[in-house]
Inverse folding.
């Protein structure tokens, strides 16, 4: 898996920006007004400033990279202050759009409204939160949400696999997960424990997912969770657990995340552009490019592209926003 | 490393100088001191060898010739981070050096050391030097980026890092001024020079070696900072060089931080390569500081 991805990336590197844009163009017929296949012919100038979630960062940065290859006059910058930190800057008008790994919160929306900043939501990709165990773990092939909740509940005292399910062997459980500032943590605790932020605290937290990879790969009874990309890149040293939310065991995969069967751990990733910013031609062109080439961008950033309905919805959402911007 | 003191029956003349009676304690203590010193050195050596070996495949001109890229890990470089670091350091120096040196000269040469004002300033400078760099990031975001409306630009970063190293510059400059013997000042004043002439023509030139070393070391602290700049909203992806003080920027520590978070192995190697480059830059700055000190040092 890893090898083919890398080979594909290398091939992309060789073929250069022209081919990238061409691929992007062919993957989508619902393109709006900008012509993404027209490389180097653009005389747009100005800047596009984006901040927000570090989970969505690779996607938007890939979009920025491709867009700037086609529009060398435009300077796109992407920061990663986190979803919440990004919204704070966004609602002060310091950025043109905000990446988010969760929907906007009510108080954030209120802040934006108070500052007179109007925005819309674009769902740009899907992520499958993946629960991983050590490859030596041959018993936990499928876990139910209840079992995950039993492990991760705030008052949980489960510290051995034999407490998770009858028949599991006597093996100490060591837990790894993202830190409390992470949108991944918010989402996981919300769907597994029923309350955002409610989690046992005696696990090894890290904002760096590579640390979680090392932790689980290094301990036979290890268990952790993070975005699908990190599992895919480390599939040789980790094992992904299938998730049973009541209708059978489903393994995390691009298809399962897209068609909605990987419930409830498949999550949408968002970008929130401001309507005011979309009135500037370079911001408008950037988002038209982003939406039109979304599948290629998601592939390039190692994320799961949207389903066809998702893509159609994305195009419709952007069109509605552009109509609001009235440009 | 076997000590001769313990085994020699008749005390040699040198060993009597080192004291007598407890050779075992003496030897043990020496080993403890040696081990304590070795810990730091060994860890530094391990770190350098580890990152160098890991980053070696990517320590190529492409590292500073190419721009960062998410799509093409194989050809990605760090040019924008390197130029960003240079821009930010230039503004850090422009902020911290004049202000720091002038205030040190005031406090040391002109101010009244016993006044209440100066005692308060003294204590605060000492305290500021110990404030965590993140706090300066919050200050920079609230005051420089927002109240002064400078935004997330090179100049905001330069001013913030300048404030961060200002106490270090003041303290080291004061120490080098204090090291200039009073005789020189008195001699100059006795010959009829004014206080301004004495300071400008005698004291400050004599203190230059110390000032130069102190300020370069202060700047090499600033060059490795990522935390305050992350708070200021330094961008993680930027594929163009800064064009002026109001340009967006990224720096090498931020690029390293960003690459280490990526799941792809290529970026881990790139991060190691950039760490090596940053270390080389730091060592070069420190070498320049030592060189200046050795070249210009005077003895009285």
């Amino acid at each position: 898996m890893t090898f083919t991805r890398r080979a594909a990336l290398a091939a992309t590197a060789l073929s250069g920006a022209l081919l990238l844009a061409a691929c992007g163009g062919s993957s989508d017929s619902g393109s709006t007004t900008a012509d993404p296949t027209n490389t180097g012919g653009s005389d747009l100038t100005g800047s596009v400033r984006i901040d927000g979630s570090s989970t969505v960062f690779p996607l938007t940065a890939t979009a920025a990279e491709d867009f700037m290859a086609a529009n060398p006059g435009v300077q796109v910058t992407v920061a990663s202050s986190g979803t919440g930190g990004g919204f704070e800057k966004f609602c002060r008008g310091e950025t043109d759009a905000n990446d988010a790994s969760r929907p906007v919160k009510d108080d954030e929306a209120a802040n934006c409204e108070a500052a007179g900043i109007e925005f819309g939501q674009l769902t740009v990709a899907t992520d499958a939160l993946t629960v991983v165990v050590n490859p030596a773990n041959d018993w936990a092939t499928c876990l139910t949400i209840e079992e995950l909740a039993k492990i991760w509940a705030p008052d949980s005292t489960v510290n051995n696999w034999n407490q998770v399910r009858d028949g599991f062997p006597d093996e100490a459980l060591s837990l790894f997960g993202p830190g409390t500032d992470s949108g991944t943590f918010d989402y996981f605790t919300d769907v597994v424990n029923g309350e955002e932020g409610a989690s046992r605290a005696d696990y090894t937290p890290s904002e760096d997912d590579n640390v979680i990879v090392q932790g689980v790969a290094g301990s036979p009874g290890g268990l952790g969770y993070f975005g699908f990309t990190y599992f895919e890149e480390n599939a040789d040293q980790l094992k992904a657990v299938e998730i049973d939310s009541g209708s059978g065991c489903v393994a995390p995969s691009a298809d399962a995340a897209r068609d909605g069967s990987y419930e409830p751990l498949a999550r949408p990733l968002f970008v929130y552009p401001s309507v005011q910013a979309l009135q500037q031609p370079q911001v408008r062109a950037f988002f038209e490019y982003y939406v039109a080439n979304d599948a290629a961008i998601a592939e390039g950033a190692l994320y799961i592209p949207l389903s066809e309905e998702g893509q159609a919805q994305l195009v419709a959402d952007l069109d509605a926003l552009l109509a609001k911007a009235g440009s | 490393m076997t000590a001769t003191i313990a085994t020699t029956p008749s005390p040699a003349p040198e060993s009597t100088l080192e004291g007598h009676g407890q050779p075992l304690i003496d030897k043990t203590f020496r080993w403890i001191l040696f081990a304590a010193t070795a810990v730091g050195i060994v860890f530094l050596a391990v770190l350098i060898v580890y990152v160098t070996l890991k980053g070696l495949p990517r320590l190529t001109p492409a590292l500073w010739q190419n721009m960062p890229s998410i799509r093409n890990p194989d050809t990605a470089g760090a040019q924008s981070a390197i130029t960003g670091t240079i821009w930010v350091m230039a503004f850090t120096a422009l902020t911290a050096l004049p202000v720091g040196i002038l205030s040190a000269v005031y406090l040391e040469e002109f101010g009244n050391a016993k006044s209440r004002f100066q005692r308060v300033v003294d204590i605060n400078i000492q305290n500021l030097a110990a404030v965590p760099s993140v706090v300066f990031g919050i200050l920079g975001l609230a005051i420089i980026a927002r109240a002064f409306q400078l935004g997330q630009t090179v100049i905001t970063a330069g001013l913030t890092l300048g404030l961060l190293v200002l106490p270090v510059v003041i303290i080291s400059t004061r120490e080098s001024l204090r090291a200039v013997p009073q005789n020189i000042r008195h001699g100059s004043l006795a010959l009829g020079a004014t206080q301004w002439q004495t300071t400008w023509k005698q004291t400050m030139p004599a203190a230059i070696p110390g000032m130069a070393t102190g300020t370069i070391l202060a700047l090499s602290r600033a060059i490795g900072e990522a935390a305050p700049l992350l708070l200021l909203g330094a961008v993680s992806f930027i594929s163009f060089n800064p064009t002026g003080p109001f340009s967006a920027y990224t720096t090498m520590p931020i690029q390293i931080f960003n690459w280490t978070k990526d799941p792809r192995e290529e970026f881990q190697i790139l991060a190691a390569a950039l760490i090596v480059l940053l270390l080389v830059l730091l060592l070069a700055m420190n070498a320049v500081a030592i060189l200046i000190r050795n070249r210009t040092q005077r003895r009285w």
User: Anything to note?
Assistant: Chain B touches chain A through 28 residues (CB under 8 Å).
